[in-house]
């Protein structure tokens, strides 16, 4: 609050891109993309291969030229209306998948590479970063003496050394061993948060985005189709494809009649869908609830769980953390998959009752 009692104006976003577009051979591979990233915030550009993530990042870095749009850092344009600052004047740090360190330089010299400060200040910054990435004492070593994970941390320190205002990371963990990856992701996140840069991280892995991001920008065919906190993107997907990007899904096809849809699980409200319009009710496997058969009867309907429906187990598989059980529903022959934490392996042919949590269903036009 300031002296007159008005709330202070929101600080300008660290990075703002507006209506960025880039075509190759007449095809827009980045199509009117706008987003903002605040200082200290991690935004993940998430999407399938070829959707334009790297091209977006390269335009912000200044190594690819947009056809149109604007890029603004701390309120000052770095690309707009004929202005195009070269990469080194944008205050941007880069880290790519092949984070190639300079093999002939020591770890310390790799980290100091982009620093212009006096010798002593440089050495201080290098030591500070080595400590931050847990590599104190590694300064005199050469890259070939380091493991993949250690090299990744040196590359992170190198990118952060000049204190970039914006950090651009393109699949920086994809070259790492699976078992190392989670630990390195968490450690990297901690360092990034400490340094306070605005981070735009490209990934095609939903798990990685969920783990790292304050905000996810979901891209498809050159466009950002949804942007928000991981919780919101997961629980309120804009469409079926957005839901399916994060987990397997079950789809119940039906028709809307008088703003209602009849399914094996009772009636669903489908306001806003025309009479006779085909709709899809989407539910993730972990939101199907299972109950036992009591001589042909299931549990009583509840407002939250709706009407139970009986299904026959087709197949059950144990995946370690969870079991997947496939059902053929008695009503309509629909096939649904439920996931259950731990071990749950009912025999094929067993009759069980399923309920779908109303608040976890998404209704989309088909
Ligand atoms: N210099 C170029 N010339 C022609 N086409 C290009 C060029 N750069 C990228 N493309 C095309 O633009 C599309 C988007 O590429 P981009 O590298 O941005 O995808 P991506 O989302 O990063 O994919 P991935 O997850 O596979 O890395 C692709 O179809 C690609 O072939
Ligand atoms: Mg890419």
UniProtKB/TrEMBL annotation:
Q: Which Gene3D superfamilies match?
A: P-loop containing nucleotide triphosphate hydrolases
Q: Which GO terms describe its biological process?
A: quaternary ammonium group transport
Q: Which UniProt keywords apply?
A: ATP-binding, Cell membrane, Ion transport, Iron, Iron transport, Membrane, Nucleotide-binding, Transport
Recorded GO molecular functions are:
ABC-type ferric iron transporter activity; ATP binding; ATP hydrolysis activity
The answer, when asked if Nucleotide-binding is one of the entry's keywords, is: yes
SUPFAM superfamilies xref list: MOP-like, P-loop containing nucleoside triphosphate hydrolases
Membrane-spanning residues:
none
Q: Which PROSITE patterns match?
A: ABC_TRANSPORTER_1, ABC_TRANSPORTER_2
Report the protein name in the record.
Answer: ABC transporter ATP-binding protein
